[in-house]
Records
---
Amino acid sequence: MSKSKTRLSQTKVAAFDAQVDAHAKAALGKLLTGTKRTLDAMRSSGAEGLINDDGDGTWGDMDDADDEPLDQHIELSAEGEEAKFLQEYICKPRHKATQTWVSRITTADLRWTEQLEALVDAYLKYKHEPIDTETLETDVFQLPYIDVFDSNETKPFHHISASLYTNATLLAQGTLGPTPTKVYVAFSLRTLELYWHVRIWQPRVSVQAWLHVICDMHNQPYRRVL
């Protein structure tokens, strides 16, 4: 069943145009003087040449007939399975956290407690019987290094066979990681000790503020998570 089209009479069209003009004039009257000047400049700069009115009541771009698609010479294929990869990427379910923030903190506390005795022994040895790393012949691994007095971004560390934990190995060499397991960065003990003394006299200095200080001293961009 075809739908009939309703055509407005000339009187209604004229009334509608008059109403639109009235609203336009009211809107223009509320504009600032600078905005009006900008609109006048746009009108006089040839903006009217961007559209074409042939008198038949339809409007369109003047150069539509001569325009060609910009991508007409580009061929898309699925030989590299790009479409399949994109589909799998879009439909891939996101990983949901299985632990709450409280459970994460509780788990971290338990992990620290498990290795606390080994960490104390490693710290006391570092203070009273420091290891000469130059004489060690064990494997070396690199970690990002944070030190308020040293601008080096990474530091080599030696594996210590007697250490059961990564942080015990780091403590024996004057550093400590921020997490009990899966250590990804090492803080120098002198940096942590300096922050501890600052917090004693000014408790308002937060960890993030301290990291801002270190980044500024070494001309490095601040990162919220290290």
Note: Residues 47-51 have pLDDT under 50 and may be disordered.
---
Amino acid sequence: MLRLAAWFDGADDDTAHALFTAAFAVHPARHLGGGTEDAAAADSWWSAPAADTSAMLRPGARGVLAPVEDHSEQQARLRDAAEAAAHWRRSAAGEVRSLLAGLTPETGRLTMTESALGVLMELLTRALGSGDATTGPVTAGDLELDIRLHVSYAPSAVLSIGEDGGDLTLEGLRLRATPYARRELGPEDDGEPEAGVGDTAPEPDDDSGGA
């Protein structure tokens, strides 16, 4: 290293650059062609002339720049498709809310469209994934569709759901659909009266013993 330092100390600028490149394999910047022909291979990026970055004409364009492609029609088609899909999902959610407005019976059968079944299965999958239905009711909702599915465990329940592709059978579950904001069901939703509702206290017996 001392000998290399001595060589650097006694070298002129050109020799020092060549020595540095040979010793450390640090080569000078390479300039891309096309912008300017005035920069040498050994010129620094800092001191080399700036390249012309104005728009380049395509070969054969005869001096006319190619127009920017118009994607407005494609964007309109994508927007219409997204709006149509959202409309059908809202309609399907409304169908599910209508069919499951009350708690499903212990044994029953429902018929719904394929899109409604898709919304139902999406909510059912999320609800069952959120907890153990055998230990307590579970729910899942969609704020945009304003729907919430309530799932409760009933060992003897059997629900068949029919659509064009065939029947789906759910065992051990009872379902109810409500607006999204309703997170819990009350005792009245089970079809059973609340404690004390409808009960009449017995009238006291009249003592008819003679005075």
Note: The first strand starts at residue 107 and ends at 111.
